[in-house]
């Protein structure tokens, strides 16, 4: 190879920078287009200059930049401006105000960049970059490429700004749709809790069934389940009365639950609850079945008519409180039991420190029980079946909690079941409650 030919080949292989496009350095070398990333690595796109690869890149980029962006429902920046959304002060603005302010800023930027002239200029430059003989004049090619890259960079920045605005609008609209779905769900829930006393607070009473220590332990577990459920819902929980078992658990207990629609939700739990497990109290590790009954009593407000209680119809007994006790709780007769002689209904309280407080709490429970008895009597007279007032008996358990030989909790009224009893015993009862309320609503 002669010196002239060698010099020509070296000249052909000499790298010539022809410009920057979108942060990428473009170099012409030995008849090839090399694209260098700005991180210094040269993993690169190589194409013979006889194939207008650069023109494809330029055409795609400029056409993509020229496309007017829009939200999922077709709203564009120009459309936002055309809507004439008012721009408020910052302290009273909403999303439309923000969108309008940003859209006008984008519009002003486009105007100063002479946006409408940039797009046809890019088309001209793209056509020039697509010509195979362009690279015969590297200086001219570099100038065209630099101008193209500069315009593309400006368009890219504005388009990213525009895209971010439109994506935010899409997200806001989606969030509003989700809120509408939540509102619809709230309306459905209100329909399920439309009973006369559903909005009232309530007493939840748990009593151990036959089975000795096993059932007393189970009754304690059920009461803990309701306390945790109430706390999950943000309800207030107050222990009114509790009679501990001889070895473990409780014989019976009463709690007061205060919160919006406390009775409406809790009424789904009325009935017998059955537990099947390997007994922790049986040395032979046999499987045992235990029962606990649950009653739920609404606490009627001042707007409801109460059963009138005459002082002469009451028998009040005072005794020493049981349990762990405090400094003097077990040394004085602070516990109170009140019996309504005409009906035989009684209520007791021993958890407060003073006899007066226990008497007031016991009277509140007694009043609610007598009110419920009257409501039940009226329901029977009207031949109406009210699920929240049905008799509790062990022959028709409403729900089974099986911990052995398999694990499952099943509601026998609705067939709703789950395979993770631990979460249910931790207070996750909403699935069972809503399923029951839905069935009750359909029956009506």
TrEMBL record:
<protein>
    <submittedName>
        <fullName>Peptide chain release factor PrfB2</fullName>
    </submittedName>
</protein>
<dbReference type="GO" id="GO:0005737">
    <property type="term" value="C:cytoplasm"/>
</dbReference>
<feature type="coiled-coil region">
    <location>
        <begin position="356"/>
        <end position="383"/>
    </location>
</feature>
<dbReference type="Pfam" id="PF03462">
    <property type="entry name" value="PCRF"/>
</dbReference>
<keyword id="KW-0175">Coiled coil</keyword>
<dbReference type="GO" id="GO:0006412">
    <property type="term" value="P:translation"/>
</dbReference>
<keyword id="KW-0648">Protein biosynthesis</keyword>
<dbReference type="InterPro" id="IPR000352">
    <property type="entry name" value="Pep_chain_release_fac_I"/>
</dbReference>
<dbReference type="InterPro" id="IPR005139">
    <property type="entry name" value="PCRF"/>
</dbReference>
<dbReference type="InterPro" id="IPR004374">
    <property type="entry name" value="PrfB"/>
</dbReference>
<dbReference type="InterPro" id="IPR045853">
    <property type="entry name" value="Pep_chain_release_fac_I_sf"/>
</dbReference>
<dbReference type="Pfam" id="PF00472">
    <property type="entry name" value="RF-1"/>
</dbReference>
<feature type="domain" description="Prokaryotic-type class I peptide chain release factors">
    <location>
        <begin position="320"/>
        <end position="336"/>
    </location>
</feature>
<comment type="similarity">
    <text>Belongs to the prokaryotic/mitochondrial release factor family.</text>
</comment>
